[in-house]
Sequence to fold (453 residues):
Amino acid sequence: GKSAPKSPRISEVKAPELNITSENEDLLVEISKDPLFQDIDQSMNLAILTESGKSEQLEGLLVRKQAEFLHQTRTDRQVPLPNRSWEPKGTLVCHIKEHKAAINHVKVAPKHSILATSSDDGCIKIWNTRKFDSRNIVNNSRHTYSRPGQPIKGIAFYDTGDKIAVATRNGSLHEVGVKELKVCAARTLAIQQDDVVIDMDTLGTGNEQNLVVCTNDGKIIGVDLRSPARIFKLSNKPQLGGVSAMCIDKGEHWVCLGTRHGWITCWDLRFHLPITTWRHETDSCILTLKPCVSSMSSICVGIQGYNEMSMWNIESGSKERSLWYGPPDSYMTSTITSGVHAILPLSHDTLVTGGADHSLRFWNTRREAGCAVVSAPPEISSTQIYRRKYEKEVEVIFAEEDNSLILNSTTENKGLDRPSPAHHHVITDAKFVKTTQPFLVTGDMGGVMKIWK
Fold:
């Protein structure tokens, strides 16, 4: 792809020092919970570690844990990542249908006390996540904030967790106060006339927190929450196509835009310059973008029409890894029932995807045997095995049918079929929620929210 002038390079992840300091104390506490670390007697010196062959493993563990720790500060502040060993089992806890149109976003407040969903029906629903653990599982929202006739395309919690920024499709920006799970105040921040908002997120902390709004014609608009006033305005090249997706790295201060023609541009928000621009090889519409946990200079990309989720380096515009829902021949054919709309990075090497086939999949990029279908409609086979290969120097993990499992399932399953707990519409978003135990929360185009263990 074509490259624009580059700003200073984004630093790569470096392994932290082994000595405990105020800066890495929290990180080392998290590392100490890892099974590998617990296997190592902390009284052992480096020579013994080297002889036991575990020094290299320990170094890799430190790098991986720091990447996860940094990802936590780069996305939602104070939002814990799941334990590396956790994976959703596909057990449906709750099915909720309150929204009357597509759910566009599921967002979790700092410390995971509140969850918010936004929809094309013009409503934001506020949910009490503590109810997820109770016997009387949550089955209704605690409060609704409504903008009738204005589809809500972007929501973002402030880092304090007591306010939500709201962006409607027609360009109006609002601030909603949340106290004791109820909307306590609301004000209009700004109106971007003639702009169709695609997405929005916060940037910065405390009194220096700002909004970054993305519009379909390629504008990136910064809004000061204190004024509120426009603090910058950047413009994507019109020939790249209308913008369809956005993601922000809050720690590194960059934003990536994906377009309907398959172009991705990364902008440096400190210098207001494009870092690089490249095009997906399929030229397909970019449906979703998310920062990777494994590297501060990589993003996860979901596209329309193909059963692929890929990881790209934003400095070079090169593909680093691909995850395919099926065998290689199925990837080569574009279909209307294909496309990854939801990507949820969980740890350095695990993530969840969902999309047009109404299925949820768990991926383990370090161990392909750990990949699995979490939930899928009956026509999607769950009897799949995952393999790894390299194609044009890109690592590919792909699924294929396991005929032995298909034979066993057909001979053993002779009872009545139970209704599938899977989504019946395109899955649009997925979020991790941690209360006293971890949950996966998903939303779809039918307005349904599901809670999974």
Notes: Confidence is low (pLDDT under 50) at residues 1-25, 38-47.
